[in-house]
Amino acid sequence: MEVFLRYFGPAIRASDAAGEQRRERFRSDLHEVFSHYNRATDGTAVVENRYLLTVATRA
After folding, report:
1. 12-25 b/e with 16+ CB inside 10 Å = b?
2. pTM listed for this prediction
3. Is residue 45 very low, low, confident or very high in pLDDT (cuts 50, 70, 90)?
């Protein structure tokens, strides 16, 4: 989670925008999400993701 908050732009911006009082709640919520979805058992993070890739071709 610390690496995510240090290097992942959207998480950094969300944490910064949360302000002092909400920042700890944001970190707590993020930790809960990582804990729930993390499949690693060795202290690292392995979180499966799905995404949609769209390729458009101009006619």
Report:
1. eeebeeeeeeeeee
2. 0.65
3. confident
How far is residue 49's CA from residue 59's CA, in Å, rounded to a whole number? 32
Mean pLDDT to the nearest integer, 30-57: 90
- Using CA atoms, how far residue 9 sits from 4, 16, 35, in Å, is 9, 10, 21
What's the number of CA atoms in the CB half-sphere (13 Å) around residue 39? Answer: 4
Using alpha carbons, list the distances in angstroms from residue 12 to 20, 55, 56, 59: 14, 29, 30, 39
Q: What is the SS3 assignment for 21?
A: helix
Pairs from 31-40 (Cβ < 8 Å, separation ≥ 24): 31/1, 34/1, 34/4
At which residue do the structure tokens 């949609």 appear? Answer: 52
